[in-house]
Write a structure and sequence with these properties.
Elements lengths: L1 H6 L2 E4 L2 E6 L2 E6 H7 L13 H22 L7 H10 L7 H70 L2 H16 L3 H14 L36 H15 L3 H11 L3
Antiparallel strand pairs: 1-2, 2-3
Length: about 270
């Protein structure tokens, strides 16, 4: 009896009955087994033997199997173990040999179900981790795509704004706004500025004086002076306008003074 139960994972150790499973062990002392069977326990370790011991072992096996069924992963099939439990539930009326056989088969099935449940738990955890990783990758990709779209939109907006300011009308609008906001020059001063730069370059940011090499809308000489504002001075009318207004302010005070000087000596 002991050899058979030990082979199937059921251990009788000293005065305690232990049913081993793949996920752990349920230990029942003999007093607890005796109470489960209605056997009075006068001492802490009553002696069970023969049929009482067989039935105690059956009760412990059923208790462990039910625990495994209760705690099993939802994806684990426990029907075979439930059938084993049912077949062992009438242990009070079974013979010793029948008890031994049914206990052994129930323990084996309990181990199988416990292992299957543990395997399913592991598979579920891996699947959840994979889903989480995939979701993170998707979120990262979406964020990167959104950032790229925002950058592209900003670049398009900047290119469109520069294209607008690089026209004579756009350069005039930029100059009028800056003259008012940065220097407090009104429409009368802008009329002088418009006359001055129309004469000098026609508000063309690509204008170059063939005789002296003066460059851009304000006809800076040399044109590289405008690099003090930005490196794009050759291709950006806004950069040229900013430099030109600073030059007029520093050299003549106002656009009308610069225009008067230009009318007098044909340069400014």
């Amino acid at each position: 009896m002991r050899r058979t139960l030990r082979r199937h994972g059921v251990l009788i150790a000293g005065s305690a009955a232990v049913v081993a499973t793949a996920g752990g062990a349920l230990t029942m002392t003999q007093p607890a087994l005796g109470e489960a069977l209605g056997v009075p326990s006068a001492t802490a370790t009553p002696h069970l033997s023969g049929t009482d011991l067989d039935r105690a072992q059956a009760a412990a096996t059923i208790s462990t199997a039910r625990t495994v069924v209760r705690d099993a992963n939802a994806g684990t099939d426990t029907s075979r173990l439930e059938h084993r439990i049912a077949s062992l539930s009438d242990y009070t009326s079974l013979s010793g040999s029948a008890l031994t056989e049914r206990i052994a088969s129930t323990v084996d099935t309990t181990q199988d179900v416990a292992q299957a449940s543990a395997d399913q738990d592991h598979a579920d955890a891996q699947a959840a981790a994979a889903r989480e990783a995939a979701a993170k990758r998707a979120a990262d990709a979406a964020a990167a795509a959104e950032a790229a779209a925002e950058r592209a939109a900003a670049e398009r907006a900047a290119a469109e704004a520069q294209a607008r300011v690089n026209t004579p009308a756009g350069a005039r609008a930029a100059a009028a706004a800056l003259a008012s906001s940065q220097y407090g020059w009104g429409s009368d001063q802008f009329q002088c500025l418009d006359s001055l730069w129309t004469k000098e370059s026609g508000w063309d940011y690509r204008a170059v004086n063939a005789n002296g090499g003066a460059t851009g809308i304000p006809q800076a000489l040399p044109g590289s002076k405008m690099a003090s504002i930005a490196a794009d001075w050759q291709t950006n009318a806004a950069t040229q306008v900013v430099w030109g207004l600073q030059y007029i302010k520093g050299s003549y005070g106002t656009p009308c003074s610069a225009w008067s000087h230009s009318q007098a000596v044909n340069w400014y």
